[in-house]
Amino acid sequence: MPKLWNDTIEAHRSDVREAILDTVSKLVGKGGLRSLTMLHLAGETGIGRATLYKYFPNVEAALRAWHARQIDDHLDELAAIRNRTDDIVERLHTVLETFARIAHESGRHDAALSALLHRDPAVTRAQDRLREIVRDLIARGAKAKRFRRDVAPDELARYCLHALAAASELSSKVAVRRLVDVTLSALRAA
């Protein structure tokens, strides 16, 4: 097969896969994680069930792929905002606030299914990458004497991320912002 033909087929497959994942996102947004079925997904996507099964063997696989894409998008967003300003405190504040907002918004999903999705190895890699982003900002801030230096940056990063994961249980955006401010205040140099 000519290379152009292979490229065209791969582009088509990628477009179909993305369309399926976009539909998963739409359906989860409407009815929650448990509302998704292969029949519903095929109908909403506008493709046959046989074609859908070529991409994903079951609902769980489609949900895992959607979740992995969500995680990648969130990490890309956090990496991009990490460098928006020169002030290290403001940079960390923006990253932590964005992470807390994401945690708050994801708190609406069904707990049992969310737990299933978070057991995926891709989530562990994403958590490591996120911790690395926060740890590096804290280390830079400590070097600039803006953050405390009596605790290792990795420990402080873990503290921040665990504290801000509680944003998933908060009832308002104002409460989320307060949690971010309290967490960030614990990092400031004396």
Describe this structure in words.
With 190 residues, the chain is an all-alpha fold. It has 2 domains: 1-57, Arc Repressor Mutant, subunit A (Orthogonal Bundle), CATH 1.10.10.60; 59-190, Tetracycline Repressor, domain 2 (Orthogonal Bundle). Helices cover 75% and strands 0% of the residues. It contains 9 helices and no strands. The chain has helices spanning 3-31, 38-45, 49-55, 59-81, 88-106, 111-117, 121-143, 153-165, 173-185. Helix 1 crosses helix 4 (59-81), helix 4 (59-81) runs parallel beside helix 7 (121-143) and helix 7 crosses helix 8 (153-165). It starts with a helix and ends in a 5-residue tail after the last helix.
